[in-house]
Amino acid sequence: CSVLLSPHQKHYPGLCVLKEFKMVKVHVYFIHTNTRSPPVPVITQTNSRDKWSKKMDFLLSVIGFAVDLGNVWRFPYICYQNGGGAFLIPYIVMAIFGGVPLFYMELALGQFHRTGAISIWKHICPIFKGIGYAICVIALYVSFYYNTIIAWALFYFYSSFASVLPWTNCDNAWNTENCTNYFLKDNVTWNNYSRSPAEEFYTRNVLEIHKSDGLRNVGGVRWQLMLCLFLIFTIVYFSLWKGVKTSGKVVWVTATLPYVVLFILLIRGATLPGAWKGVVFYLKPKWEKLFETSVWVDAAAQIFFSLGPGFGVLLALSSYNPFTNNCYRDAIVTSLVNCLTSFMSGFVIFTVLGYMAEKRNVNVEDVARDKGPSLLFITYPEAIANMTGSTFFAIIFFVMMITLGLDSTFGGLEAIITAVMDEYPGYLANRRELFVLGLVVVCFLVTGMCFSQGGAYVVKLLEEFGVGSSIIAVGFLEAIAVSWFYGITRFSNDIKSMLGYSPGLFWKVCWVAISPAFLYIIVSSLLKPPPLQLFDYKYPDWSITVGYVIGASSFMWIPIYMVYKLVWTPGSLKQV
């Protein structure tokens, strides 16, 4: 029989669960040993931990975390850059053999052990506990730059309540002589110095980046953006302060509304002149790209960052599930929804890019150069501003961006909250509201440095170095620790105790060999990043060094804890 102890008990060889009796507040396990002694009842408290009110609360929370702004800005860009429709082949392959198995693994781990990213290692392999601390540091870095982007979206949302959107023309105080408005005008010359009204609104009015000399002098604080950030964190606090009981209700709005907006924008985009050019450019396969290693690496990186294993969020969210919840089905459903959302977002983006190419009388690739925030804050708003009903479409577009961002923020901060509270229950068990308040205040104060006039440079640095290689290396070690040290047989028995059946050979092979190799390929490719640049600013060498220090500041907790564990724990290496 399989070993099945409570989430807070260790695994011991020769112990078997004979029967489980559910009582009002306790579970009673009769454990039989190999000796002649009678079965020993072990009583553990199980109802003290929060639980999801409904299954859909959990599913929407996971979907909301996984489907984020990257699905809208990153996937379409990477898809057309790496062969259009041909890119779907490596993307699907990497999802099947790398992304989904890791996603399933984290959901199963969190549900079985019912604890966060730090204390879970007591049950898996204690020497790897530094992974939990590294995950929390990375989650903080994500919060610092990600909420900055949401605050920018909130500023745009506020600016959209105007009969004429402020990024429609060149007649504003922030515009320069290079501002060129080619919509609704004939014989407009577009050159390398031309700047659209939308670009100047973003760079000179929202960011005021022209008043900064770079990272050495980031300039003054943008108080309007700080106010937007305060409103964002206020929403975040009151969504998380009571745990999954409150956040599970909020996601019914924040996780579903983006799909309504995406559908509306898809219909509108399909009716624009030139939309078909964008779709052809998006999906036209370039089969020769399949022979380039970089395409497969990009596919692996995209599916990893899109699904989000390794961030500790899936561990935290699934830890509030019932023990017998079908986490296998959840993994398949939510992964499928995530991938289909990315694919649909490509149509939403490229129908509009085709429209802009038609208006500029240029090729689609000439207007599809922007990626990341520039795609969402320059390219798409520029197209919206010149549609009929521009105010309405601008409002719903930025509502979609805000809700997409909030879901991911909920997940990232919940990973930290669950991890720390489970690690220090004696101090924090009845103080969740205060702990969440303290965490939100710290995030707000540190994120404030991203709202100087050169704050966009800081955001870019955190995005490139604060997560990137570090989180993939963490995911790699997590997969190794579970599959090789904890043991694939033991892990499979854990899943069998929850679902009633063991995972198939495919999943075991993926967990033991394919998924770790998948992560190793990604992290090895990211160790040599291209030169960093934002607009016309090239990051100096010293800033790249700072970036590597930021990346190392999270990952370093893994070897530090290993050394600490080896030095201070008595016994042999195997016992440690």
From TrEMBL:
InterPro entries registered for this protein in UniProt: Na/ntran_symport, SNS_sf
Keywords in alphabetical order: Disulfide bond, Membrane, Metal-binding, Sodium, Symport, Transmembrane, Transmembrane helix, Transport
Q: Where is this protein found?
A: Membrane
Q: Which residues bind Na(+)?
A: G64, A66, V67, N71, S306, N338, L404, D407, S408
Q: Which Pfam families match?
A: SNF
GO molecular-function terms, A-Z: metal ion binding; serotonin binding; serotonin:sodium:chloride symporter activity
- Annotated disulfide bonds: C170-C179
Membrane spanning stretches: 58-76, 88-109, 130-158, 221-240, 252-276, 296-320, 332-357, 392-413, 434-459, 465-486, 498-522, 542-564
GO terms classed as biological process: amino acid transport
Taking the record's annotation, the residue ranges forming a coiled coil are none
Q: Which domain of life is it from?
A: Eukaryota
The record describes its membrane topology as: Multi-pass membrane protein
The UniProt entry's GO CC annotations, sorted and at most eight, read: neuron projection; plasma membrane; presynapse
Q: Give the protein family.
A: Belongs to the sodium:neurotransmitter symporter (SNF) (TC 2.A.22) family.
Q: What is this protein called?
A: Transporter
